[in-house]
Amino acid sequence: MMNSEQKLAIDQIQRVAKQSDALEVINVISSEKSDSFVIVDLSLYCGDLVGADGGFPIKERERVRVLIGPDYPYAPPSVASSHTRFAGYPHVNWKRWLCLYLAPQTEWSPRNGMFGFLERLELWLRRAALGELDETGGPIHPPVTYSSKGPLLIPRSDTPNVDGEPWLGFANLKQISPDRIDLVGWARDEELAETAGVAILLDAPMPLEFPSKLNELIECIADRGVSVESVFELLRKAAESNSSDTPLFVVVGTPMRGTKGKELKQHLTGWRVDTLLNKIASLDGDLLQDRRVANANDLSDWSASIDEHRGRLMELFADWSKEADITWCRVREDRPEIVTRRDNGKPVSWFSGRNLELWGCGALGGYIAEWLVRAGAAKIILRDEGVVTPGLLVRQPFHDEDIGTFKAEALAARLRKISPSCQIETSTKDVIECPLGNPGECTDCDLIIDATASNIVLSKLESVWRSSAGIRKRIASVAIDREAERLLVGIAKPEHSGGPLDILRKMKLKACKDGTLKRYLDAFFPENPPVPFQPEPGCSDATFIGSAADAASLSSLAVNFIGRALSEDLCESTGFGAYMSDACAETIAPPFVKFEFSPDHCVQDPESGFETRIAASAWRSIKSWKADSARRRGADVETGGLLFGELDELLKVVWVTEVSGAPSDSIHSAEEFVCGINGTTQLNDSITDQSRRSVQFVGSWHTHPVSPAIPSGKDLAAMDRLLVQSPVPSERQLLLIIGHASTSMETGAFIFQRKEFESLRRSGQLSRQIAISESPSLRPDLLPSIGLSLSGGGSRAMAFHLGCLRALNDRGVLDRVQVLSTVSGGSVIGAMFAFSNTPFEEFELDVRAALRRGFAKGLVRRTLLSLRLFQILGTWIFSGVPANMTFATRFILGRANSLVPKDSRAGGTVAQSLQPPFRRWVNRTNALEQTFADLLFGETKVAQVARDGLDVVINATELRTGTAFRFGNRESGCWRFGTIENNDVSVARAVAASAAYPALLPAIDTVLQYSHGSSDGESKRTILTDGGVYENLGISCMIPGRDKAFSTNVFSPDYIVCCDAGPGQFSDTVMPYGWGTRMMRSIETTFRQVQHGLQKQIHMCRENRELKGFVYSYLGQQDARLPIRPPELVTRDQVTHYPTDFFAMSNTDIELLSQRGEQLTRLLIDHYCPEL
Where along the chain is the active site annotated (predicted)? Predict the structure, then answer.
């Protein structure tokens, strides 16, 4: 009796048969039983199938039988041919049954029913006719054996090479359980293990369907070059080697495993020999035993009986093999040459075959250990002195029976069950005692994972890191927060300047300066630590609140991150860090933030035993302040400033993290530098608060421009005064001297104590050891890509940007800028820089001269005192008058159209089609273009950038389409029109278009020849105005994710430095009373809202880690909101009053605007992107 699903299947088959003559239903057979199969005989038209050599012999019509089971559609139907013509071909079992699905769980869809089944059958037949059932690169259908009664055989060792002839020998076996045998190796006679099976590896394929009788199998093997006698001899030797109660196994291999088109591997099958064959083999063993006890005189008699004895055995073997069934083993492959690990290519692949140490076997360490073992680690040393207690079973991977045992021992027992091949060792000593107490005992491992979450271990490890090379290995430290919602991972490679504590310190400082990471900062480095959670108050250690699921989830994140970071193995990164969170628990902070760290420059002070670690960002700041001083005072004048970081007396390490310039009361001269103290207390307080006390005043630095980095008597006197007047009273302070040897810069770091100067004042002498090291230099291949944008704002923008460029140049960033994008006033100074290759000092002089001169007079002169005046008048007559008439006509038609019923209106369409007939070919903006050409750029084209490696984008706005129009050295154009053919545009024209402020200057109206993709060139009337109309910051061409199909000049820098010369918030002194002031303020408000949206977009890109960093140097920045306020800051109120124009500028205004730009840019890079 058919069930409802089977009835549906028959109905679907009959519906297909009615629609096509290619399918004919011959018969449907069902039983009265409710749980029986339904049989459907079908005839299929195959006359249109294309055949090929090696394909199945398919006839014009093929009959098949389909079996639809009672569990259909949750099990696919079976199908068999009505003949044995397909026997011996791949994917045909038992000579008739067609194997349609290699993986039914994924390939069979119950929802598609018999429609999908018939489509699959047709596809199978088409591929079979072509001989393409095994596709190139796809898995070959292996030979099959049909039994699941035998024991489980797991091959774990790759087979020997079989080349030209069969390989005969033995399989070394290991009995795991009564029903499981592992194949652990291959051997000849002399290499037999305690348990050996016969191994026959053929060099020719076997039939796709193995025989079910032993004599048939032996005949198949004999046909492939292995005689019956050889088989028997192998059986005899194996039986002799094994103990009497050990079953005898035979393993047969044939080269039929792998993917089509590649070298095939051995497909292994195995069977267990029953007791009769064991008896025959043991009889032969008795004969050998007789030989052993025979004396030498009787040996000839023994030898004479061998042939007769062997003949009798062979007869018994032959008779038995005809009747014996083969008890096939269930083979489950685990050979590396066959099995692709299910975690292949995943981050945990890094751990495969590695020797590892794990410190801490608790909530995190217990799960981490399991992930490492499952990843294929070769060896793991577990270190933990703790004991399993009842409360730990809530979340640590132990059993009730483990209570009272050492965690390391209990965990080791569990891991050995998961992977017996992994070598597990344990230590129940305190990690502080071993290995940190004796680093010489540290094993030679590939990675140490510290899961102790112990500050004591971190500190001890950092101390040992300095003193012992034995502990300098890859070390990862992992910790979770109090609520088990967030994870912290730090990784230090051997070549890093410090251990995991150093990495975690750097991660803390990153979080202090990134508001999006505040939740991580509060979780791992809280200002006010919360009340600790003690599960058993008074008698248990403080711990986190979390479940086993929390611990397992976070530990898996840690292992994946460690594996990924070490797999990438970026040569320039010696340390890695990551904040991660449970996606279900975190809704605001980013769920994953990764950091890469380079080593600090380390300088030793042999007198004090301290090591000074100077961050690369601190070196860049020192370089910047040196350049600033050389520009202001001369290269031979000493300069210096203050150092901020952390001094750890226990570790004897001084971290130098931030650097300031000289306080205002400092003394600079060629003979000495005396560091002042004005404003240092406020500066130190600000830095200390922002870093949550991880960065504070630690000393001072200064230069010796023409002498070695050795402290002079004047240096010591200045250091003595600074110790007394220091903003942070301390017993020790650092003096860092940057001197000059004959060919390079050198550095000396000296830790002075107060008592040294007390001795100096008494005796007049100070004796100490010194060590000088070469100063570091940045490798060019480690530098990130940087985009720089210069906003509009007329001469105000030029002066402000001059200071920004100066700060970038002092820091060494300007020469590394890869993309320079400019708008309006920013385009003038940006083009002056990009299209000249003069040194920055000459460039600055040129900019100052241009600002003092201004461009307004030149514009007036080239407008009123030249032939251009008559050209402008002529343009107004021949173009402007018709344009005004067009506007009037459109107005009249529009008014008339409003009087007509809506259904009859046509005038609106006509009015819209009326446009100014002639372009404005000459106007005042052309005079500005000529001014720029005469004074600055000449006939230079935009493709002729003078600075190597720099791409330039000069932004304008195309008014017809309302799109961005970008002039660039790569291409110029807009996405609506395409790109200008041959990019034949002068720099003067591009800058004039970018600076054509619409309230004062008309747009450039021209005709340009464009190409759009592969299409032919096309002329387009193009109307260009100020780039600030579309976007005044100039950053849109660098925003991540832009599509080249809808934009020109697309760039994706790692960092963006945006210099905005906008005045900031509106002054509330303006009263927009009249129409003009109302409209002006309304336009400005709309414009600013658009700009705020762009600012938010770029900040979101940074928060989403689409950018590595973003610096926004904003003239109108509210000073109170600066992260740090320098003592001599040019305030916002001093500069924001300056108008947007191109009139001549005074030296005072130039100096104030440029100084603010320099101060803000230097300050913000130091704070937000110190890595630049």
Answer: 824, 1026
Whole-number Cα distances in Å, 588 to 519, 546, 556, 1135: 8, 20, 22, 38
Look up the pTM and report it. Answer: 0.84
959: how many CB neighbours lie within 10 A of its CB? 18
User: What distance lies between CA 354 and its chain's CA centroid?
Assistant: 23
d(Cα 719, Cα 731) in Å, to the nearest integer?
13
Among all residues, which ones are annotated catalytic? 824, 1026
Percent of residues, the chain, with pLDDT higher than 90: 56
Mean pLDDT of 253-260: 81
- Tell me what percent of the residues of the chain surpass a pLDDT of 70: 90
* Contact of 867 with 853, CB cutoff 8 Å: no
Query: 924 — phi, psi (to 5°)?
Result: -65, -30
- Write the CB contacts of 306 (distance below 8 Å, at least 6 apart in sequence): 287
What domains, with CATH codes, occur in the chain? Answer: 4-130 (3.10.110.10), 152-282+310-331 (no CATH), 347-531+543-597 (3.40.50.720), 601-774 (3.40.140.10), 786-863+921-1164 (3.40.1090.10)
Q: How many residues does the chain have?
A: 1172
Going by C-beta distance under 8 Å and a sequence separation of 6 or more, which residues neighbour residue 733? 698, 699, 700, 719, 722, 723, 726, 751, 752
Q: Which residues contact 629 (CB under 8 A, 6 or more apart)?
A: 637, 639, 662, 668, 703
pLDDT at 163: 84
Tell me if 483 sits within 8 A of 554, measured CB to CB: no
Band the pLDDT of 951: cuts 50, 70, 90: very high
Contact 617, 599 (CB under 8 A): no
How many Cα neighbours within 13 Å face the side chain of 239? 22
pLDDT of residue 295 exceeding 50, the answer is no
- What's the pLDDT score for residue 142? 61
Half-sphere exposure of 502 (CA within 13 A, CB side): 36
Mean local confidence (pLDDT), 1145-1172: 94
